[in-house]
Every structure is written in C-alpha cells, then in structure tokens.
Design brief:
The complex is a heterodimer. By secondary structure, chain A is an alpha+beta fold. Chain A contains 4 helices and 6 strands; from the N terminus they run E-H-E-E-H-E-E-E-H-H. In chain A, 17% of the residues lie in helices and 17% in strands. A 6-stranded mixed beta sheet of chain A has the order 1-2-3-6-5-4. Chain B is globular and about 70 Å long. Chain B has a 3-stranded antiparallel beta sheet with strand order 1-2-3. In chain B, helix 5 runs antiparallel to helix 12. The chains are: A alpha+beta, B alpha+beta. Chains A and B meet through strand 4 and helix 3 of A and helix 2, helix 4, helix 9, strand 6 and strand 7 of B.
Chain lengths: 243, 378
Amino acid sequence: MADENKPSAEVPASNGNAGAKPPEGATSETGGSTPAAESAPKPAAASPDVSASKPAAGSAEKPAAKPPPKKKAPAVMEVSPWEGPLVDALKERFGGQVTEFLSYRDQDFLVAELSAAIPIIEYLKLEQDFDYLVDITAVDYPKREKRFEVIWILYSFAKNTRVRIKAHAADGESPATAVNAHLTADWLEREVFDMFGIAFEGHPNMKRILLPDEWQGHPLRKEYSIIQQDQDWVRENLHIESA
Amino acid sequence: MSEATSLDAPEATFLDSNEMVLNMGPQHPSTHGVLRVILKLDGETVRGTECVIGYLHRGVEKIAENRTYVQFAPYVDRMDYVAAVSNALGYCHAVETTAGVEIPERAQVVRVILAELNRIASHLLWLGTHALDIGAMTPVFYCFREREEVLKIFEKYCGARLTTHAFRIGGLQYETYGGFEKDCLAFCDWFLPKVDEYEELLTTNRIWVGRTKGIGILDADECKEYGVTGPVLRAAGVEWDLRRAQPYSGYENYEFDIPTCQNGDTYDRYLVRMAEMRQSARIIRQGVEKLAPGPIKGKVSKVLKPAVGETYTSIEAPKGELGYFVVSDGSVQPYRIRVRPPSFVNLQALDRMCRGSLVADVVAIIGTIDIVLGEVDR
C-alpha cells in the first residue's frame, strides 16, 4: 500500500450515507471529505455520484477531455422505489436495518447495515427461496467515510428473480462471511479480500486467491495505480528488475 | 465447511498409512492451462484437493477502470478465449443495459447465430480434450476438424478466428459477408451427422462409460450450494438456462430444448453437452431464417457515457452464467466492472467432486467441469 494517501483523481465526490456511523477501523483515511455534512436530499447512498458531467449527453468531447469540467450538480443514479410482497416481508423482519429498497433499470436492490447482510441472505435463502448466491463483489469509493460497498447478488430459481444486497464497509471493517449459507461464497470472498483487502469474518480460509500470498497491496482499490505492482515480490520471485 | 478445512487436518485412515500430498500442475497437460491442484491422497484415493489459481491473472477488472467502455471490449475476448463471442455478447449486453441502448433486430439475430456457433466450437474443444484426457485419442482430431469450420466462418466474418471482437456496443461493426447464411446452413447440415459420429465413438463405448459413469457426482442441491451453472447444473436435473429464464438478444423468439439429465455425473454432463450442440445448430438454422435486411447498429453516441448507475446482467455462456456488474459514474470510463466468470465459480466444486474418487478420475473431473484458465484467473 505504497501510496495509500494518494487517491486517484477521478473518484466521485462522496454523497455519504445519512446516518453512517463513524468508521471504526479507518486508519489510513486521508479524510478527503466529510460527507456526513452534505448528505444529499435525495437518499441515494447507493449511487456513485460523479463530479459533474452530464450523463449520456454525449457531446463532442473527446475521451481525452476527461475529467470533464464541472458544470452541474453531481449526477445521481435515477432510482425508483422497489415495492412488493418481498419488500414488505423484509421490512417487517428487518425493520430499520435495511435503509433503502430501490430499483434501477428494473433491477431490484436493497441497502442494508453491514451487520444485517448475512441475516438477510440467510432469511432469503431459507424462507424466500433465494437459493443461489450469484456473486459477491465490492466497489471502492475512497472519499466516502465508509469507503467500500460490498455487494451480494442473489437469485431464486423458483421465482426467477434477482436481488442485490448492498452494504457499506469502512476500511478495516469485516463483514461476516456468507460461507455458512452458501458454500460458493468461499472463493468469491477470497477474491474480494485479494482485490480490496476486505477480510470476511468467520471465513475458514481467508487468504489471497489470485495473487501470490505474499503480495503487498490490493489492486482494485482506487489508489492502486494501473502500472503499480509489488516490485519486491517480482524481484525476489521472478528475478525481474522492472522499471 | 468442516470438510473443506479438513485438508489441514488429515484424518486417520484404515491402515493408518501416511497421507501423501501430490502436486498436479501447473504444467500438466490435463489441467487445460495453468491450474495447480494439490491432491491429498490415501493410496489411490483422493481425500481432498486444493486449487492454486491465478497464474494467468492479468487484472482485467483493473484494466476496465482505466479504459473507456469501447476500449475495454477487446479485453473480454481474452478471458474465455475459446468462447470469445459469448464474452463479447455478455459485455455488450451489459453495457447496453447500463446505457439503455436499443439493438436493431438484424444485429441481434447475427449475434445469436455467432454466439451459438461459438457454443458449438467451445463444446467441441471441450469434447476433444476431455476425451483425450481420459485416453480416447480419436475424438480430438474429429472435433478440431469441425471446429475449424466454425473458425473459418468467424474469420470470414470479422477476420479473426479466436479473439474475434465480433460485436460492438450497440450492435455490430461489420455487415455479414455474402454467403454467410449459406455457410451457416451448410455447416449445420454437415455438422449434425458428425455429432452422431462422436456419439458412436463414445456413448456406448465401454471404456468411456466405465471412466465417466458415476464419477464426479454433483447433485442439484450441491450445484446450487456451489453456485455451479451451465451444463453441470443441467446434468444434475435442473432445467435452467438463462436463454430461457431471462432471455436476452431475442432468445425468446427461438425454439430450442434445454437438455437435462438426472445423475449429475461426468457421463451425464457429456450427454448434456452433446445435446446442446444439436440445439445450437437448431437455433442457428432459425436465426438464418430470421435474418432480414436492416440496420446493424443502434444509436450510440460516439463518446459513450452511460448515466450514473449500476446493473448486473448475465448471459448463458457455454460454461455457465457469465455476468457483468457494471458501475457507471457518468464518465466515459466504467467506474468498476466486475466479471462473474462461470469457470471460476464452477471450479470451486472440484473439491467436492473429487473426494473419494481415484487419482485417475481427477483428470476426468477437471475435464468435465470445462474450465478455461484465462477466465478463472482473469
């Protein structure tokens, strides 16, 4: 984590998430923003709101002109509320632990407290037939107070529907593992750990999966440059002196 | 999970012999690339396996964040490189969903035809190498002969054979060449009897049956537990195919069966894939009939900037569910692209399938999952 303190230029300005707790393990945050103060009127904690840029306006700008000049208020994801019997059941069961039920391009997702994610996954599996955990992944927003969004995608064979669960995690915070509910979470969580450094609590084998075990840094964090690599590891193990 | 962790704590065996740890790969002809499997053996019996992967890791998802949507398109071909067209279809479909782009009818049909041709090519490569692993030398030559014809069609269409970059976001780059329809139909006519020939070689072959029946069983519940999709899931009796369950690219307009079997063993997976090749040919024929003149590219702005948002879309690749999770921040570059690769997820079930089987069967089981390491490692 050589340049931990150097977030990349194109990270979106955070809109924070209302009611976010202070980061528990945020040791290396540079504190680039204090988003709680400016939580947007629209409850779009879900959206990667970008600094400026008209969405899809497609003007004659060349790709090289990025980042675009600031023109308008930050764009947000145009979500619509997600309603239905499943939402009602979840509301009744989990109450305030689920902050939002949203839908974007006909894809339903919910935003929940990090600690509630696994209970929701277990509930959906046992009582709502969501028996297939499609994927676990994360997105890094370095300027947010809680920089990671952890995302679980579930599918129900019986209902032929997908649901995404989204939770915010600060650097160093550990979501609980989903391995006890879905064995497939094993490798998926290891990959998230490998790429983002999010360690899942209770995972039986929490180690890197794609990169070598001794590798330093987590490549899909935004401050990890595209040309960066663990030079020491490369030198020691591959005997390559790279530039 | 107690089973998965027991690798570290070998249990006492009947003769109290020492367990042996054997390294298979990464340079091993039957691991189909650079997969390293650490086998824990008790005599000839496999007590546990551990996969070591990542030898082909190129950081595709990181590259995506540093390219525009259009620039990233050729990279997806290099994940599952034996089914590059399917990868391209999945990626284009994902970006089009995020950006809300409509695809013209003709482009959709051509996409389906090429994707099904690619499914045949992918299954042929699987069949040839799988049979070779088990010891049947002949099929690989036949399979490569037929696969060659598919690659020739690709080459005539876009100039490339393997990493085709066949599609563009919004439709197609190239109109089909003169005689495309004829080539496709001729291929189907010529190919279907060949499938019968393979079956004649293998389906009732005593060695083949002996080496595959009852080997590497994964039942339907286990498949769901492990998130295993594609032919492996269908061989366990689950009639689930994304082309039917959540149609894309106009698949709802085609008639085709979803082949299934009940036992979920290596032999059943073989039967399912053989049947799928026939179904693909059936879809190609319908596609050629549907092919009407028309535009091949929808309205996409030169500088593609999808609105802020995130979507997960997936397609039925030859190996299972291939998903793309796209996060757009409204700029020309994706904020994040996550690829949900079928090979990676399916490979995880290797341990369960190998436990209790013989060392020689590990080779058969790796083959039957049908993995491509380029996609596992990305």
